[in-house]
Amino acid sequence: MPTSTPSLTISRILHAGYLFECAGTRIAFDTIFENPFSRNCHAFPAVRFDHEQIRRQRFDAVFISHFHDDHCSLESLDLLDRATPLYIYCLFDELFDMVRQLGFSQVQALRLNEPVDVGAFQVIPREAMDADVDSMFQVKAAGMNVLNVVDSWIDEGTLAKLVEEGPWDMVLWPFQTMRELEVLAPSRASAAPPELPEEWLPQLQALAPRYVVPSSCQFLQEPWSWYNRAFFPITYAQFAKEVGAALPDAQVVRLDPSVSVRLDAASLRPALPLDWVIPVGAQDVDYVYEGNAAPPSTADIARHFAPLTAAQHARVLEYCRAGLLEKYGEVEAASEYFDRPRIWQLSLVDHEGQVTRFLYRLDPAEGAAVDDSDAPPGWTTEIPMAKLYAALELGESLTSMYMRINDTVFDADTERALLDADVVDDPLIRCLFSDTFGAYQAAQLRRLLARA
After folding, report:
1. Beta strands 268-271 and 8-14: pairing type?
2. How would DSSP label each residue in 359-384?
3. N or C, which terminus of the chain has less Cβ within 10 Å?
């Protein structure tokens, strides 16, 4: 009797989420079953999820590459059977504790270069450029060798090791460069060229895969958001054009959510799509980039958010009057700009566009204090009040807060000093995020346990 060719089926879930199937074994990566996810990441192309069907799915293992909330969401994990083995790359014990509190009984920490065997699969975590945060995955099954780069960039030392692990049948490559920091200070940022970073093509040429999938991303912000024209410089078309020219023997394969392919030694063929990931509307969509895209005022942005309740409003004001002052003394700036006293103006904008301003004197020796002088500010921060509340209580991340930094012209001496300052030295960013881990997942866990 003729024998079938060994093959591996790969299905796209969303963003960096995939389902791999081989010889009756099913493993998933970075499972996100939400739209929107991470509060304001809307699937692009658009999809919806059949949560009842997802609850009936059984995976032999789920692998999570890192703790960021667009890869590790407790709301999505809550849909899975609690006996599902979870393998997570994370250096912080808090995340493992939260997942176990959710009820999962088999939760394992991944170690770089230590293989995990699950049925027909061997999965090997590989070192990402920022090994304190990210990991990549080498996946072996049916004689196939797949590299899932997830969100990572690859340094030269790791690249050399990956080349030795070849040949590669497929590489899932994070094709979009996102301008998370540039949109915080658009008046001070240069527009990015709509082309691949110069190191990507030589790295892909060194890996020499048969197939390249533009991976990760697959989202836009809210439909009204100016970020949708300023955040995402690279199109699918540009990626296919540049990679196709640099790797003429490779095929660039776009996998939209729900789409499945069967990979074997000779070919890549369509397979049945996932019926629990449901495409909505046009799927052959692409990004549009317009440089810094004329950002609207923070007042215009703030009008899109619901008004805070009286208690929520009070929580924000109390933080600005007291909590922020206490926190500032515990965090340090990375650059030297705040090594001398500075006046900082923090502007909170409510749902009607009304502004509440706070002035602080920031002193490296004495910490922060409310300033009642008439000295001009040397740093400014604007934020919708609803977003500051969300950061304090809901685990909102920086990329969805619509913060605006130093959107003004200072005196000449201040402008010269700002040339060497880093936007993430912003005092509010440091107070909210510099020593905080897993705030988004912690807020999710509180909601899920209360619901249970």
Report:
1. unpaired
2. EEEEETTTEEEE--S-PPPSEEEEEE
3. N
- Answer whether CATH 3.30.450 is correct for domain 298-451: no
Q: What's the token pair of residue 43?
A: 């699937």
> Got the DSSP string for 382-404?
EEEHHHHHHHHHS---GGGS--E
**Nearest residue to 209 via CA among 125, 140, 147, 267:** 147
- Compute and round to an integer the Cα radius of gyration of the chain: 23
* Percent of the residues in the chain that have a pLDDT greater than 70, as a whole number: 99
Inter-residue contact 90 to 135 (CB < 8 Å): no
Q: Is the pTM of this model over 0.90?
A: yes
Residues 124-162: pLDDT tens digits? 999 999 999 999 999 999 999 999 999 999 999 999 999
Whether residue 54 contacts residue 79, with contact meaning beta carbons closer than 8 Å, is answered with yes
What is the domain class of 8-279 according to CATH? alpha beta
Token readout for 450 is 């209360």
Cα maximum dimension of the chain = 89
What is residue 300's three-state secondary structure?
helix
3-state secondary structure of 163: helix
Domain ranges of the chain: 8-279, 298-451
- Pairing between strand 219-220 and 251-252? unpaired
Say how many residues make up the chain: 452
Question: pLDDT tens for residues 236-253?
Answer: 999 999 999 999 999 999
